[in-house]
């Protein structure tokens, strides 16, 4: 599975899909403070989108404080560890809403969506308990809203 994928059928604009993915990768700990991000041109080519789309994503991420651009060096992850507004909890809530929206768009009921997500969670737990790698490359992250929802490795 590619790190960045665009869903052409999503109601979210491509630039927002990419921005949301970056926010998740940063807040979940995949990208660490000071990690260098892919170049704008490189990511545009990898994902198959226009250079200006990725440039818009990076500009928005920088404006929101997730990244810092350094002239002639690239874009780097900002330190977001002390920000309570940048939590895995907030990101996961957005993903859950997007999941529900898509389920409803394909004709599922809320009960259908709930059964499906519970089934998937059970499969992931069973795989994890059996020492198998999680399906789809899922990495479990624990977080505590009392601690601003910051992720901690484990699970």
What is this entry, summarized?
The protein has helices spanning 14-27, 40-47, 51-63, 88-105, 110-129, and strands at residues 67-70, 74-77, 142-143, 151-152. The chain is mostly helical. The strands form two sheets. The protein has a two-stranded antiparallel ribbon with strand order 1-2. A two-stranded antiparallel ribbon has the order 3-4.
Description:
A hairpin with a 3-residue loop joins strand 1 (67-70) and strand 2. It is built from 5 helices and 4 strands. Helix 1 (14-27) packs across helix 3 and helix 2 packs across helix 3. The model is unreliable at 137-155 (pLDDT under 50). It is globular and about 50 Å long. Helix content is 47%, strand content 8%. It has helices spanning 14-27, 40-47, 51-63, 88-105, 110-129, and strands at residues 67-70, 74-77, 142-143, 151-152. The strands form 2 sheets. Strands 1-2 form a two-stranded antiparallel ribbon. A two-stranded antiparallel sheet has the order 3-4. The longest helix is centred in the C-terminal third of the chain and has 20 residues, at 110-129. With 155 residues, the chain is mainly α. The two termini are 22 Å apart. The protein has 2 domains: 14-77, Arc Repressor Mutant, subunit A (Orthogonal Bundle), CATH 1.10.10; 88-152, no CATH class.
